């Protein structure tokens, strides 16, 4: 019997112990797992047995302890992952709040600049309109636009009362959008006119008042619009910008004579910039 044991090599003993350890681990895995064929790391077990790990290490009890330790580690990893998710969510919320505060501050600053811009432009527009009215008075020899003249001459012919509005604004065409912005706007330009001329006492009420466009000398930038109502009213004329009119009602054009008032409203066409 002793001779038979002497013939057994260390390698066979290790193989025997490894098989026994694998068998124990497989049994423990079958007891703890719902899988019919649970995974057993056989190569690792063989290496551990080769390096002298005791066979008791691979018992059912030890495998349960290892499984419990692994479950604890898995639980720690899960909690750590959840904590990272919560931290990331908090960080994203804080960054979103900071972005909102920054956007609100920029918006308030922009509104302040916009208000200052409109204040400056109101003053600028007032100066333009006053200059335009003075130009009309100087060139046409008329009274102030704000007054409603009722002067009569020796023949009873008188100037009709009138109200004139000059519309100004910015032309945000492609060229101006490239070279200007809201903080540095392009020069203001006249965009249209409104004329209300009063003819309450026309002798011939069957013929409505009319208007004509005349040249302003050699100027190509301005022209003369003349209103003719008939007796007892004399013609009145205004110098206006010489641009092409929008003749569509959708674009603001209006020319009617009703209740003794000639209303002429029009805007100028805006053309796209082309290189």
Automatic annotation (TrEMBL):
<protein>
    <recommendedName>
        <fullName>Splicing factor Cactin C-terminal domain-containing protein</fullName>
    </recommendedName>
</protein>
<dbReference type="Pfam" id="PF09732">
    <property type="entry name" value="CactinC_cactus"/>
</dbReference>
<feature type="domain" description="Splicing factor Cactin C-terminal">
    <location>
        <begin position="156"/>
        <end position="275"/>
    </location>
</feature>
<keyword id="KW-0175">Coiled coil</keyword>
<dbReference type="InterPro" id="IPR019134">
    <property type="entry name" value="Cactin_C"/>
</dbReference>
<dbReference type="GO" id="GO:0005737">
    <property type="term" value="C:cytoplasm"/>
</dbReference>
<dbReference type="GO" id="GO:0045292">
    <property type="term" value="P:mRNA cis splicing, via spliceosome"/>
</dbReference>
<feature type="coiled-coil region">
    <location>
        <begin position="64"/>
        <end position="120"/>
    </location>
</feature>
<dbReference type="GO" id="GO:0005681">
    <property type="term" value="C:spliceosomal complex"/>
</dbReference>
């Amino acid at each position: 019997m002793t001779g038979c044991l002497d013939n057994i090599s260390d390698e066979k003993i290790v193989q025997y112990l490894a098989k026994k350890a694998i068998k124990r681990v497989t049994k423990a895995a079958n007891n703890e797992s719902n899988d019919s064929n649970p995974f057993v790391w056989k190569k690792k077990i063989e290496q551990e047995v080769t390096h002298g790990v005791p066979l008791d290490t691979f018992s059912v009890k030890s495998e349960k302890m290892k499984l419990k330790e692994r479950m604890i580690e898995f639980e720690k990893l899960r909690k750590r992952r959840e904590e990272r998710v919560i931290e990331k969510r908090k960080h994203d919320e804080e960054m979103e709040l900071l972005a909102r505060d920054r956007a609100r501050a920029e918006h308030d600053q922009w509104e302040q600049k916009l208000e200052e811009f409109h204040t400056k432009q109101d003053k600028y527009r007032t100066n333009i309109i006053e200059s335009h009215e003075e130009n009309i008075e100087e060139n046409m020899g008329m009274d102030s636009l704000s007054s409603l003249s009722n002067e009569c001459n020796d023949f009873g012919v008188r100037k009709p009362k009138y109200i004139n509005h000059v519309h100004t604004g910015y032309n945000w065409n492609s060229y101006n959008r490239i070279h200007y912005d809201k903080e540095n706007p392009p020069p203001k330009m006249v965009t249209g006119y409104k004329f209300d001329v009063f003819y309450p006492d026309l002798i011939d009420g069957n013929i409505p008042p009319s208007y004509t466009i005349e040249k302003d000398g050699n100027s190509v930038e301005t022209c003369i619009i003349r209103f003719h109502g008939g007796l007892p009213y004399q013609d009145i004329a205004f110098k206006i910008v010489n641009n092409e009119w929008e003749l569509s009602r959708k674009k603001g054009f209006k020319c009617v004579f009703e209740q003794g008032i000639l209303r002429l409203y029009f805007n100028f066409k805006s053309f796209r910039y082309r290189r």
